Amino acid sequence: MLVMEPMRRTAALMLTLVGMCAVLGTGPLAAQSSDHPSLRAETKIYFDGRKPALVGETLTLFDTGIAYDIQLPEKSQITVFDIPRSRVVLLDATTQQRTTIGCDDLVRYMTALRQQALETGKADAIGVSTQPISDPQTGVVQAGFPGFLYIAETQAASQPGLSKIYNDFTGWATRLNMYQNPRGAPFARLALNEQMSASEVLPSKITLRATVGDQTETLRSEHQFSPMLSVQDRALISQIGGMLVSFQDVPADQFRTPRVAQNE
């Protein structure tokens, strides 16, 4: 594992933890499809140092099989996970630009990363074979390897299918973040997501502890969910739909890429 300066280590950790949510829904609730359950999640990430600080916040809306991940508070950086169409679209409302990354590209990248780690003897160092541990009595799920440990406190999903759509989303977010800027512990995070999905639970809090030498840094994410979208949420989705059509399409290497707020 590379030794990083404290500021850079903190940034890398932030890019490895998934979100914490505080439900904002106000106003009348709109209907949802039974085939594609709707979900509203808000993510807040804190750096737990001597003075805990909020370092990331997102609102994620799930509708008709698509996840709209909006960075708060400005709402200018948006990532659309359109998995049914095998694509992830990044939007920048400030520059009015968009770029598209294929899901196949993300899968191929992670496969190549895994293979390279196995061939170079670094598989253990990046947690390629991480096996999660789940405690059914407490609902706590852990996944980690020397130097990295995820601890997820979980809650039962209020409706069937919600755990899968959320944990699938965080899996794609982990792959995207790694593809854009390789760092963190993606395989441990993917293992954590898969275990929560298999257990049909959602996270209420995820803690990531990363140790380099004699220094340990901690990121904490807190999550709340609503199984319904408000009228305001659907208006925001409609607005994003307009951005997908009207924004200028640019190559990925020319796009100012945001990272999805998560502790990967």
Automatic annotation (TrEMBL):
Keywords: Signal. The keyword Signal applies. Residues 1-30 form the signal peptide. The keyword Signal applies. This is DUF4412 domain-containing protein. The lineage of its organism: Bacteria, Pseudomonadati, Planctomycetota, Planctomycetia, Pirellulales.
